[in-house]
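Lab notebook: predicted structure, single chain.

Context: the supervisor wants predicted structures on file for every construct in the current expression panel, including those that have not yet been purified. This is the next one on the list. No modifications to the sequence; it matches the entry in the shared construct table.
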Amino acid sequence: MSFFEDFKKLKQKTVHLGLRGFKNIGCEYNDYLYFSKICYMCMHGDYFEHCMYCVQGKKCKYCGDCYVCDLCELCYECVNCDECYNGVWLQDCRRVSDSLFCYDCIGCSNCFGCAGLRQQQYTLFNKKLSEEEYASGVAEWKAKGMDAIWAEFEKTKESVPHQHMMNYRIEDSTGDHLKNAQRCVSCFDADGIQDCGYIYHHYNVYGERTVDTWDVVSNVDLEQCYQCIQVGKGYNCSFGYYCEVVRDCDYCFQVFNSKNCFGCIGVNHGEYMILNKKYSPEDYEKKKAEIIEQMKKDGEWGKWPLGEGEKFDTD
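Prediction complete. Output recorded below exactly as produced.
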């Protein structure tokens, strides 16, 4: 029997977590949510408070229906926004407050239907107004209804140049929606990465930077990792799915607070284990080397242990 067959057999007989999360309070109907309070139907977030229907982000409060937003408060239907307050229908905005229907605005407040603005206030569809004129104009447009507002907003967006990438504080890096990145290749929706490549949806919770990591999706705080999904605080790990605080672990699923594990599933505080069986350090290294050699012969080494169309969270 090959290693992948043994792994699948172990996976089928091991209890899986139904919902994934850590240190949450009042967050019964969420998944992949961590360090959060009083949230409903949120996913892939950290340090959310009083949020609902939010996906991907960190440190948001009183937000609803937001996607990839960080450090936002009292926001609704916002996408790829940072440090925004009391915003509705914002996209690719940073430090914007008390505004509606804005795209690619930075450091603005009291803007409505605007695009491509920097450090502006009381602006209606990119036209500067007095405070009184702005309030009156917003009231008039709200009375016209959503269809009219969207049509005028789209005209405003088309009238200004668009950035080809929405990046912030990057150096020698390629990708989109990057923040604080150095020497990275084809990374997207990532914050705090260095010498990494092919990363999607990544930020840091335990530290400040992820380094030397490639081909990963939806992780936090990694170093020298490869082909990982939903791994938090991992070092020198590969082909891991939903693991937390792991070191020197390969081909592991739902493994926590562990190190030197190979092909393990549902393990907490494990060490020197292969397919959930405990070994001495010397026997572990010997057995692991034998398995890897056989995996290379079987064409399994360097591939995910899943059949075609199979998902980790199913049999």
